[in-house]
Amino acid sequence: MAVLKGSVMPGMPKPPKGYEEFVARYPALGKAWDAVNAAGNEGPLDAKTVRLIKIGIAMGALREGAIRSGVRKALAMGITREEVAQVIALATGTLGFPSTVAIHSWLSEMLGPPPEQP
Predict the structure, then answer these.
(1) What is this structure's pTM?
(2) C-alpha angle 23/31/4, rounded to 5°?
(3) What is the pLDDT of residues 2-47, one digit of tens each?
(4) Are 55 and 112 members of one domain?
(5) Which of 25, 67, 79, 99 is within CB 3.0–4.6 Å of 74 for a Cys-Cys bond?
(6) 72 and 34 within one domain
(7) Whole-angstrom Cα distance, residue 34 to residue 83?
(8) Residues 61, 27: one domain?
(9) Whole-number pLDDT of residue 11
């Protein structure tokens, strides 16, 4: 999975203004970030698996911005809300109930309430 200049792949949401300003101010750090991402994406995992793992790691670190960004990217690449919801559910056993409820709340604010269960 190649990373393009500015870490934006076709079809992906535009990075936040703060990110663009930071990279404009510190272009060498932006290039280093692109190199780290490219190196991390090398290997046998497909793009969907990589994205879901990155979301799970962000959840484990309780990085709200990274979770939101990862989910926006996941949805843009065709990963479903239900697949993201399963990652949240999987996090519960490791993170605990309060942290997982917080993550669920952040994503509910961003995505709206989940569809009703049958």
Answers:
(1) 0.81
(2) 95
(3) 333 444 566 788 888 999 999 999 999 999 999 999 999 999 999 9
(4) yes
(5) 79
(6) no
(7) 26
(8) no
(9) 79
Q: Rounded mean pLDDT of the chain?
A: 89
Half-sphere exposure of 57 (CA within 13 A, CB side): 9
The whole-angstrom separation of Cα 75 and Cα 60 is: 20
Q: Dihedral of CA 23/29/32/33: which sign?
A: negative
What is the pLDDT at residue 7? Answer: 47
| Same domain membership, residue 100 and residue 56 | yes
Question: Which residues form the domain of 17?
Answer: 1-43
**What is the DSSP code (8-state) at residue 41?**
T
Same domain, 36 and 49: no
CB < 8 Å & 24+ apart, contacts of 29-33: 30/6, 33/7
Backbone angles phi, psi at 27, to 5 degrees: -60, -35
